[in-house]
Each structure stands twice: as structure tokens, then as C-alpha cells.
Amino acid sequence: MRVSVIHFEYTKAFFGAEKLMYLYCQGLKALGHDVRLISLIYPFEKRVDREEQFRVETIPTCIPYFKNLYLLNTVNNLLTKHLLSRMFKKNETIIFTDAVYALPFLQDGHYAENVVVPVYWVGEHPWLGIFAKTVGWKRMKLILDKSKALTAISKAVMGRLLNIYGVPPCKVFLIPEVVDTKRYSPQKRSEILRNMLLNDNDEVAIMATPHSRHDSVLLPKIMRALKEKVKDPYKFILTGKMSSNELKSLINYAKRHDIYSNLIITGYISEKTLPTFYASCDVFLNVGFNRGMTVLEAMASGLPIVSLDSKVSPEWITHGTNGFIVGKRKDKIGTFEDRRDEIAEFLRILVEDSKLREKMSFQSRQIARTKFDYRIIAKKLEKVFFHVLS
What is the pLDDT of residue 41? Predict the structure, then answer.
């Protein structure tokens, strides 16, 4: 089977959706399929060098140069359709691409029969959802109606597609986020890195990756609450990019409340180094929402997880088995700040109880390896494609 995966590529970094598409491609290639990854990139920019096991073709896209969404979609669709129309023959390939790039194919009956669209997130109200804002309500209806199949990234997304958007059950398939459990492994643990980060090897390293202003506001409050509860040595390792204002605010707060000595800010960690960072820490704190790949990478690295509750958190974390889930689904984002003491309490338990950390570490690794490894999920995706072709 020939599979063409079309996605937008950030050339200066490796983001979640892009990484997910790469892993899907690797899994399908391992199953013996002819996989072609078509990357839509910024014009005049070079791709980041990556080790790839499949054919990659790059096409320039207009995305960064148009602020008007309608103009962006119109120009981009014309360009994409012109460049891609020569690459496909009817009934010879599966076209696996997200909503924006699916439109040119769905509008042309020549290709529509073979289009499968991954859906990462949809809102609770069709006219307000992120999905609708990205492609427009009318185009969204076209995607839902004409695509041969939709893959939902979580049970929550699948439920909304079925119950709110009225998509027939025969068209929706659950294909979750995935992780490479060979790349992310407890065996990547580095004592050299731990010695660089920690004052004492007995210190517990709590890793967190803030992605938004909400994260950078909540994290220091959790750190302060934990400082009042724990006497055992520990360090917060904050990775990832933050704006200069968020970083300055976080550091000032930490110094003002005497928690700066428990804080290490690494900044952006390259993909090459990231598995070692995960494996060299002891606990992972997730204060964001729907960060599936980040959480799965931490789980594959053998870290217990303390996470805010979203509708997808229970799909990765079993409370009390491989981590703790804080908060209830009915809570709004703002109310989680009131739960910083509860988050700090779960962190305290893990900091002080090394045997529990070891037990949860094993369970995290097992869940990631048996349920979310990309090699396993690729077989499910393969079944979806065979269903479409049949």
C-alpha cells in the first residue's frame, strides 16, 4: 500500500503534530508500506536534518505570509493543489493529512475517496471550536462529510465528533498519540547529567515543561507550596521555551519566596538530548492540557506523572498506578490555581517515597510500551487505511 502523509513542517524546531506524523510514518514503513512524507515548509528555509526511513519531498507553503485566514487558505490551497495534483493517481494511494491540506483533495472527486484526516482537537461547540476556526465552518462540514475516514487522537475527541458533530461511527477511528519507547527509555539515564544539574545525587529531580502563560504562572506557586511541605532535597528542572517576560516573572517570584535554589531553568532542549533529560529526572509534572506526546515521552522514560486533569489525562495516567491526576473535569482552567496545594502534596509523596517512585516508574514504562508505542499504533492505522481502500 502506498501512503502519502502531508503535513506542515516547522523548520527550526520539532513540534508535537509534526513529530506525531513522523512516528506514524516510521510505523507504517516498518510494516512494509511505501510511505512518502510530503512536508509543506516555509519558502527559502532549509529543513532541519533528520534521520528518516522514508521518502521525503518538500513543497513551499504560503502560511507565514498571510494574516487573513481566507486569503491564506485560498492561496495555499491553489498552490498545494497545483503542486500535489501531479503526485497522485486515483485509487493508488492513501492521502493522510490534516484539515487545511485535505480541502484541495476533498473538493476534487478524483482524490476524495482516499482521504483520511487526523483530528487532534475539536471544540464543544461546532461554531466555536479550534477545528472550525482553523478551516471555517463550511469547509469543516465538507471535511466531515466527504472524507472517507477520520482518526481521533483521543476518546474525548472521538466522543465529540460522534455526539456533537454527528459524524457516523463507521467513519471515526481512535488512533492515539504515540511514542518511540526505544528512543525514550530509562536506560538513557545519565549520572553525568544528574551531577551537573543536582548538588546531591540523592536529590529528586522534578521535570516540568511550561508551554503557556498559564503554566508559567501556576508552576512557581506549586514550587512555593512544595517548599513548605518537603524537607528532603529536590530540584525543579524547567525545560522548554518561555517568553522573556514569563521567564523574568518566574525568576523574580522564585527569588522573592526563597525557592530559587530549588529551581533550574534549562531553556530549549534539542531532540537529540531530550531522551537523556527525561531519563535523568525522577518525576514529571504536567500542568498543561492535552500534552499527550510530552507525557508519553516522560512515561516511556520511566517517570511517575503528576498531571492536571483534562478529559484525556485518564487515557495516559491511572491515578495511583503510574502517577496522580489532580482536579476534576468539570473544573475550569482558572480553578486549578486553587489546587496547587493538592499538586504539591502528590509531589511530596513522590519526593519522600523512593519505593513508590520505583513502582510507578515501572508502571509508566509498561503502559507506554504496551499501549502507545508507535509500532503498535501503526497496525491500527494500517487497518483504517485498508478499510478505506476496501
Answer: 62
